[in-house]
Amino acid sequence: MSAKHIFNYGTDHLTAKLALSISNGEVKGILNGSTREKILESSKIVERIAVSGKAIYGINTGFGPLCTSMISAVDTRKLQENILKSHAVGVGEPIDSEISKLMLVLKLQALAKGFSGIKIETLDRMIWFLETGATPVVPKQGSVGASGDLAPLSHLFLPLIGLGKVHYHGNVITTAELLEEHQMQPLQLGPKEGLALINGTQFIAAHAVMVVQRLENVLESADIVAAMMIEGLKGSEKPFHAALHQLRPYPANITVAEQVRKLLEGSEIMKSHADCAKVQDPYSLRCIPQVHGASRTAWLHLKETLEIELNSVTDNPVIFNDDLTVSGGNFHGQPLALPLDYACLAAAEIGNISDRRIYLSLEGNTPGVPKLLMKETGLNSGFMIVQYTSAALASENKGLCFPASADSIPTSLGQEDHVSMGSISGRKALQVIENVEKILGIELFCATQAVDYHHPLKPGRILAAVHDFVRTEIDHFEEDQIMYDKMNNAIEMVQEGKIVAIASKAALKLN
Predict the structure, then answer these.
(1) What SS3 string covers 143-201?
(2) pLDDT at 298
């Protein structure tokens, strides 16, 4: 395998895109020689502390409110096994196995920094789980995002000690069955290892990786779909003029305006009404740069914050040397919880404005475009009820937008008296994004129908390629029929990044 396909845990810079590439096997993550030396030295420091009699949290003391309870050198190993068992209290359906794999990748990166006292054998076993395709089963609920994601990380690492379950070759099996098949034994954890494994923000951060990836696709798709709706409803190009946005120069707003101008370039439809009497469009068309741009700004804030998190040590205590161990709060999820809630709201707003454009397309106020997007209505309901679905999804998102990070419930007998609830922020953001993908699919469905009524006039050259692609799978409708399967086709085009890919390919041909 060539060097460009290798990622060195602990030393190379991790991004959301790279984390996904490692988790899906496109890039191989390794522990190089210098990293192994750092990990070994940190592990030796912990071994020495464990037998020194000096009280250091989590190495020879209990956890949380039991931090003043000294643990004998003989029992320190049992203590680490107990912490995994006692903290594995998650409930609910398992998270997607892709997120579990991401959690492993992110934890490997954090532990490989060499400040956690973890053993090399433990990290090697984690890599083995990744490369074997045995992904730990982790329940969705149970983390308050304070001492990190204690419950989900405990479930993630039960398999290291031969417990818990894993996804393996399409089935869920016990770890005992997996180890027997491969003739392997469970690990015996050393001092502090259990605590190092479960202190951290990897459940929140893995969700944030998925949010960053999927929200980027949503934002790109939203610009394309909105531009097609501008074509379909004969909206004005003037709100996207470069000079206008230099007067309020938010970078993301400028980007959206520029992208819409490129998408409309060469449009016969836009030229056909260049001198019409209409002065202004409704905000859902006119304010696309401001609304989409604000959501892009939120996405960028999360992306930049996440990148810091992916390359940080979020363990506790942190081992610097024999004389300096620091028990702090690097595991607290607040730095991610706030931008995840922000991104959740940003995604919902993309759905809100998209639903408004869907409604506009049904009003029948555009010359040539019939009411309800069908010529013969009365007997036919046309696209009327399609908008009910987008309205329901937009409304559901509003209920999900309450910031999880606004809440805090004390835990651990008051020792953890402020918590982030960031795990909920991450899960909710993904729910909202999934709903927005559906709304944008519905807008694509309606916008394509609206553009048809301007034939033989063609949309912009990039949008023409997108329109033609949609029409390879979804026919134009002129009478009522079952729509949900065609709607789902359009939704899949958004979810799978197909329309972004088609637009990008068409744009390259023009350059």
Answers:
(1) CCCECECHHHHHHHHHHHHCCCEEEECCEEEEHHHHHHHCCCCCCCCCCCHHHHHHCEC
(2) 98
Give me the long-range contacts of 405-411 (CB less than 8 A, separation at least 24).
405/334, 405/337, 405/338, 405/340, 405/341, 406/341, 409/144, 411/144, 411/146
> What pLDDT score does 70 carry?
62
Confidence (pLDDT) at 355: 98
CA 232/CA 454 separation, integer angstroms? 8
What is the SS3 assignment for 236?
A: coil
Ramachandran area for residue 411 (φ above 0: left; ψ -120 to 50: alpha; else beta) = beta
**Omega within 30 of 0 (cis) for the link into 456:** yes
What pLDDT does 126 receive? 98
> Is 57 a residue of the active site?
yes
> Amino acid identity of 107?
K
pLDDT at 1: 41
Residues forming a β-bridge with 481: none
CA distance 508 to 511: 5
Helix axes 16-23, 97-111, angle to 10 degrees: 110
DSSP 133: T
- How many CB atoms are closer than 10 A to CB 202? 29
- Tokens 């729910």 belong to 431
What are the distances in angstroms from CA 133 to CA 167, 170, 273, 339? 8, 10, 57, 31
d(CA 78, CA 93): 29
Q: Enumerate the H helices of 182-279 as residue ranges.
A: 193-198, 202-232, 242-246, 251-264, 268-272
**Strands 6-8 and 28-30: what pairing?**
parallel
Q: How far is CA 145 from CA 77, 138, 308, 353, in A?
A: 26, 15, 17, 32
Burial (0-12, 13-18, 19+ Cβ within 10 Å), 25 = exposed
Determine the pLDDT at residue 68: 55
384-404: pLDDT as tens digits: 999 999 999 999 999 999 999
CA-wise closest residue to 63 among 419, 332, 325, 415: 415
Residue 185: both structure tokens together:
């034994």
Q: Please give the DSSP secondary-structure letter assigned to residue 414.
A: G
**Of 348, 371, 359, whose CA–CA distance to 222 is shortest?**
348
The string of pLDDT tens digits covering residues 263-276 is 999 999 999 998 77
Question: Could you tell me which of 141, 139, 180, 171 has the C-alpha nearest to residue 158?
Answer: 139
Residues of the chain with pLDDT under 50: 1-2
The distance of Cα 380 from the centroid of its chain, to the nearest Å, equals 40
Please identify which of the residues 57, 168, 388, 484 carries the catalytic annotation. 57
